[in-house]
Amino acid sequence: MDHFPSPYRLEQLISFLRTSPRRRSLLATGTLAALYIVLRHFWTRKQTGKLVTDLSEVGTQFGIDPRDEFDYIVVGGGTSGCALASRLSEDTSKRVLLLEAGGSGRALALSRTPSAYGGLFMSNHCFPLYSEPQVFANGKKKFWPRAKMLGGCSSMNASMAQYGAPEDYDEWGAFMKDESWSWKNFRRYFNKFEKYVPDPRYPEVDTSVRGKHGPIRVGYFNFITNSAKAFIDSCIEIGIPFTPDFNGPRGTMGVMTYVDQKRERVSSEAAYLTPKVLARKNLKVAIHAHITRVLFDRDDGELRAVGVEYANTDLMLKQKGTVYRSRARKEVIVSAGAIHSPHASHPGRIDILMLSGIGPRAHLEEHGIPVLHDLPSVGTNLVDHPSIDLNFKDKRNESTRFLRPQTFMDGCRLMFAAVRYRLGFSGPLAMNLGEAAAFVRSDDPKLLAGYKSVSESVWTDSTSSLNSPDLELFVTNFGFLDLGRTWFDVHTRALHCYLLRPTSRGEVRLKSNHPFDLPTVNPNYLKDSNDLEKLVRGVYICLRIARARAFEPYLDHDSSRADLDQGLIGKTHAELVELVRERVQTVYHPSSTCRMAPEGEGGVVDARLRVYGVKGLRVCDASIFPWIVSGHPAAACFAAAEKLAEEIKGGM
Ligand SMILES: Cc1cc2nc3c(=O)[nH]c(=O)nc-3n(C[C@H](O)[C@H](O)[C@H](O)COP(=O)(O)OP(=O)(O)OC[C@H]3O[C@@H](n4cnc5c(N)ncnc54)[C@H](O)[C@@H]3O)c2cc1C
């Protein structure tokens, strides 16, 4: 096991090397070599190669012949889309086209390096979304980054492989009256995508229930910070049991370090679009290909999806782009994520369901869009995991703050870490920035000892069972504000809590039918006062963890910094309520906007993910979740894609 803070020995090493001319020249040579290694790491572009068609180059040598017909067209090469296209094209008798609005995630060092994903948030590889002002959260707009690249959000996420509580899926199965979604059956697809890498530090894990041959490598971090270890010990101290495996049949409750991919990110693109898969003659993958709309025909009076229209948006913006059309003989499968599947995205005319004329009649008519099929629930039911960050002064000044260098020494530390990562794939760059977490219930009396609520506060159970959590608590080895866009100028450590089963619902809506308008996204954070109360309890539990003995050597509760949170301990319920309203933000897990549900109960797709009332059109991504999972959603996206691919191949 690796421990921080080796980069902090760097200062002593550098001072020592400066003490004689020979050592100084050694230092200079070492620095140049390190620089070379770091630059190579960041400049080497692992291209997916000419096997992928870049729409910017269509018309030159790699065009998609517009007369081409495909059996299946997958819209959106994200987490679910890459998995689907890869599995569907295993049947060599079927032609598959995968269209992705962004470029390759594998080509980006910021994506490949597990700790660097925050650097993508404000880049061209991200849709720069903001929520509507949050009426129940002090009227603030919230930043909502969504990935725009092959691999989708799996190319930019925190790599936390926790699959949700088994009972979450039992709830899906019961709701749909379809046992294929309940855990005892659906878990097969989690095993199918997973290649579990056993770790001698966790011999208790029952490997017989874990996947062995899937494309997604799942394992434990080889680098664990002191913050993570102190967090685990503090959780145990206040009564949260240690669990060796969040994804075993006993469920998710407890505390541990994350089961995760090792060292280098395993995105959906990296795992499912390997060079061997891309070499398949029956699979075509096009990047920088924005879907502008789904094309429909009438088949015996019924609406049928028959293809898609797409363009290279960058060229379209310069008004010299061509619009392409590809026909789907069998199906169009929309996998553009919980925001873009129901709606439209920026920058460019990206008309998926609503702008294609499928959605709530009154809303479409309001924007002058011809209604092809009135489906009131498209874009509704938006739900996200809301989160709160708490930042504390780091007593030992050994946080990983240098990942966003502010001083010359920080720069040296980053370079040292980059060299170490590059050479051995270890160290702080190989971690996901939040290596330990705890899953708990907000009604656990042990954890709420001493908690003083106010009489009007409400709490109703929104979990899928008494064995399922509604709060996740986790630690990061540095503090930040505003989703990491602002870092502190002192060493900090942070605790975070988020609500796993919120009951507030929002929506994705058209701002206008103008091709270059962003959609409006409104998660309605804290609309239901239950959500507010549960987050306040989460903050309270985090504060207890912060005061536990195991954290004592690491957190400075006597700091005088007004922008840090040592002063929260002892605050009243009303003060914590105000804190939650002020700080609540996304933890990047929107779902349920094309909900799988009976049509009369807010459904957009049925249990086979077919859009109600339209033939040849399915949706497969986080937008279909009937309820948000009480964990991390990427795994459910992989599993749903595996399931759908198998069913389509089996003729369902
Ligand atoms: C910063 C961050 C951290 C996260 N951390 C974790 C974590 O640790 N663990 C976890 O399990 N989950 C995590 N998540 C959430 C998880 O990654 C997502 O829920 C999941 O990846 C969503 O998958 P999807 O298939 O629904 O959509 P996405 O992966 O978002 O894929 C949608 C794809 O469609 C493309 N697209 C959109 N519109 C169009 C169009 N018009 N034409 C063509 N293509 C289009 C997009 O570019 C994108 O590639 C995180 C997410 C983020 C953003």
From TrEMBL:
Q: Which residues form the Glucose-methanol-choline oxidoreductase N-terminal domain?
A: 70-386
Q: Name one GO molecular function term.
A: flavin adenine dinucleotide binding
Q: Which UniProt keywords apply?
A: FAD, Flavoprotein
Signal: is it a keyword of this entry? no
Superkingdom of origin: Eukaryota
- Active site per UniProt: H589, H632
Q: Which ranges carry the Glucose-methanol-choline oxidoreductase C-terminal domain?
A: 502-641
Instruction: Please list the cofactors this protein needs.
Output: FAD
**Entry's InterPro entries?**
FAD/NAD-bd_sf (IPR036188), GMC_OxRdtase (IPR012132), GMC_OxRdtase_N (IPR000172), GMC_OxRtase_C (IPR007867)
So where does FAD get bound? T79, S80
UniProt key word Flavoprotein: yes
Q: Pfam families, from UniProt?
A: GMC_oxred_C, GMC_oxred_N
Q: Which family does it belong to?
A: Belongs to the GMC oxidoreductase family.
What is the recorded name of this protein?
GMC oxidoreductase
